[in-house]
Design brief:
- There is one protein chain.
- The chain is α+β, with helices and mostly antiparallel strands.
- 32% of the residues lie in helices and 26% in strands.
- The strands form 4 sheets. It has an 8-stranded antiparallel beta sheet, with helices on both faces. A 3-stranded antiparallel beta sheet has the order 1-12-13, with no helix packed on it.
- Helix 2 packs antiparallel against helix 7, helix 7 packs antiparallel against helix 8 and helix 8 packs antiparallel against helix 9.
- The radius of gyration is 19 Å and the shape is globular.
Length: 328
């Protein structure tokens, strides 16, 4: 059994989205490893490193709330309690967002996927294919409708032994919060990278677009299959090649279909969403990969301000309405 980690896709996006400011322009970059991925923030036309560090600290603050693996995080306490919990405002808002996109995608996205994430443990040191009976036993617990939100006092109750994992949506939410913080503090040009989530603040200082590459799936050299021109928008890619292991010459990746409890087998291996908000891209990239090409394209065409690029197992590339205009 061989475990392969996400690296190439991150580098492809980072290298392709880098921009050269003029020698007279100031800029600052801070980076770190958080949220189980590489994180970096670049601000242009400023040398305010302290502001950039404060933005980076936002990642750590939210990780302490949203991580299911940190024992004393707000999400861990909710999962362990199961009873009505007075939720942190941000956790309540993110779970509310997750339920919205779960409804929109008819359960292709389901934030109660945690039992299957723990069972497969694909990000762990020794993942293996679970027993079929183990998977079947967990299916009744995975249903976002088991989450009860009480708006009056912002409490969350988990019914039917449900447990939440926010890995499919948290990075997008956090990226949006970082952008708001930076814009509120006067930043006019920048780029936020949270793994496969890229969020641009306006354009480059010279008025040109950011250039962002989409990695060719399973290409260890991180070669872009195509590049995008992006101005003040979000680009989020989900792919079966990001985290996976092999057993008996078969690939088992980290994107679990909540309706089957096994890695998605929709025919799609990469979905890139272009949208105004990164949280929308995060939710829809995962859901569309699970839904498959036909349903995904129909869904994306029905949502204003959102479009997608779909890559299937034969490396065919399909665009939803409006996506082709961003291709360089």
């Amino acid at each position: 059994m061989k475990k392969l980690f996400l690296l190439g896709s991150i580098l492809c996006i980072l290298l392709s989205s880098s921009c050269k400011a003029g020698d007279s322009q100031k800029n600052v970059t801070v980076s770190g490893f958080m949220l189980n991925t590489y994180v970096s923030i670049t601000l242009y036309e400023t040398d305010n490193e302290e502001l950039a560090k404060q933005a980076l600290d936002i990642c750590n603050e939210y990780e302490q709330l949203f991580s299911r693996t940190i024992p004393d995080s707000a999400l861990s306490r909710l999962n362990n309690t199961k009873e009505a919990v007075d939720a942190d405002e941000s956790l309540y808002e993110l779970i509310q967002t997750g339920i919205y996109y779960s409804d929109l995608t008819e359960g292709a996205l389901d934030i109660t996927i945690e039992p299957f994430i723990s069972l497969w443990d694909i990000s762990g040191t020794a993942p293996q294919v679970p027993d079929t009976q183990q998977i079947k036993a967990l299916l009744p617990f995975v249903n976002y409708k088991h989450i009860q939100l009480t708006e009056e006092n912002h409490t969350i109750t988990l019914h039917n032994n449900a447990s939440i994992d926010l890995g499919a949506i948290a990075k997008g939410y956090i990226a949006d919060k970082i952008r708001k913080f930076l814009v509120d503090n006067g930043v006019t040009h920048g780029i936020i990278r949270l793994g496969g989530n890229i969020l641009c603040i306006n354009d480059k200082p010279d008025g040109s677009d950011f250039i962002i590459g989409i990695q060719k799936p399973f290409d260890e050299a991180a070669v872009p299959v195509l590049t995008l021109k992006i101005d003040d928008m979000s680009v989020v890619t989900s792919g079966t090649y990001e985290r996976y292991f092999m057993e008996n010459d078969r690939i088992y990746h980290h994107i679990i279909d909540p309706k089957t409890g096994i890695p998605s087998d929709s025919g799609l291996i990469s979905v890139t969403i272009i949208s105004e908000d990164s949280v929308a891209g995060d939710c829809l990239s995962t859901a569309c990969l699970i839904m498959g090409e036909e349903k995904a394209r129909k869904l994306l065409d029905s949502i204003d301000g959102v479009c997608g690029i779909l890559i299937d197992e034969q490396m065919n590339i399909t665009y939803s309405e409006g996506a082709a205009q961003f291709v360089r």
